[in-house]
Amino acid sequence: MDILNHLPVDQYSAVDDLLTFISIYDDTRRTRAYFQMLEAERDRIQGAVCVDAGAGIGLFSERMIQLGAKTVYAVEPNPYLFQLARKRLEKYPNVKFIQAPVETFEPDEPVDILVHEFFGQLLYDEDLYDLEKISFKPRLYLPDKATLMYGTTQSSIVADDTVTPEVLRMLEGVLVSGLFDEGDLPLQHPVISWEPDYFPRSATVEIVTPGDVLYLGLKIWHQNREMCVAGLCSNWAYVWTPVAGTRFSLQFLEDERGSEVVFQWI
Ligand SMILES: C[S@@+](CC[C@H](N)C(=O)[O-])C[C@H]1O[C@@H](n2cnc3c(N)ncnc32)[C@H](O)[C@@H]1O
Fold first, then answer.
1. CB proximity list for 196: less than 8 A, separation 6 or greater
2. Where are the beta strands (DSSP E) in 26-182?
3. How remote is the CA of residue 124 from the centroid of ligand 1, in Å?
4. Tens-place pLDDT, residues 163-208
């Protein structure tokens, strides 16, 4: 969904985020995986103080209340999503609404559980930085691990009538998401991982499999169980680029609106 007319900057940005984030709910596989994770953590959620960091429309806050959380802080900076979450959750007295970025939120009680979904297609290209800056220390993060993985394949396998091998060569050094269908191409090797309190910002990777096309994709884990895999969960499409070396580096630099990704063949 694209906004096609001129709007004041603040309105543009808020509506743009609204449209981006409501579209994540098309990914029913992801939502189901998150609900299953919450269900599996039912014992720890019962009686717990929970923070839903980036509550969106409030689905996970609602589920945590239904699973017996003592209090859920639904933290959401976007004014439109905040409004939708408040409407969904106003019938639950144990939900507290915070319209702010989570890194500015200062709870006045210890937090047991933090639920979040700040992973972009390349792991750090959304807002994991914000989790690094939070003022409190939850006892448990849900989910608790995400890994950017890579694999290689042949252009003769993935190229089509639109993105021909000739077009692909024009994309040297460019990371493009959703360029091809993921099919059943496996994510073979790790590039970089996030875990609570561990925020690596760069990686250098030696390519160990043959092929002239590199693809990258995310895997999200909780308690060592795979929850979401790029391609299967449509929110995280594979990212593609032609191979132009034997090693590449990725660097995630923070900017005002999230992250800048620096990619280079070495
Ligand atoms: C990927 S969505 C997840 C929404 C919801 N948790 C879900 O999965 O259904 C990320 C949400 O985080 C919100 N967000 C972005 N930056 C944030 C920040 N710094 N603090 C809290 N929420 C943020 C966005 O507005 C968006 O609603």
1. 141, 144
2. 49-53, 71-75, 95-98, 113-116, 140-142, 145-153, 176-177
3. 14
4. 999 999 999 999 999 999 999 999 999 999 999 988 899 999 999 9
pLDDT digits (tens, 9 = 90+) for 151-167: 999 999 999 999 999 99
Q: 231, 182 in Cβ contact below 8 A?
A: yes
Residue nearest to atom 1 of ligand 1 (CA): 117
Q: Give yes or no for residue 62 CB within 6 A of ligand 1.
A: no
> pTM score, two decimals?
0.95
Q: How far is the CA of 161 from the centre of ligand 1 (A)?
A: 37
Report the nearest-CA residue for atom 7 of ligand 1.
56
User: At a CB cut-off of 8 Å and minimum separation 6, what does 207 contact?
Assistant: 150, 152, 214, 243, 245, 246, 247, 248
Q: What is the pLDDT of residues 76-129, one digit of tens each?
A: 999 999 999 999 999 999 999 999 999 999 999 999 999 999 999 999 887 898
What atom in ligand 1 is closest to the CA of residue 127? 16
Q: Is 130 in the pocket of ligand 1 (CB under 6 A)?
A: yes
Give the atom of ligand 1 at the shortest distance from the alpha carbon of 56.
Answer: 27
Backbone angles phi, psi at 11, to 5 degrees: -65, -45
Tell me what percent of the residues of the chain surpass a pLDDT of 70: 100
Q: How far apart are CA 10 and CA 211, in angstroms?
A: 45
The residue count of the chain comes to 266
Answer whether 24 contacts ligand 1 (Cβ < 6 A).
yes
22 three-state secondary structure: helix
Is the four-CA dihedral 215, 220, 226, 230 of positive or negative sign?
negative
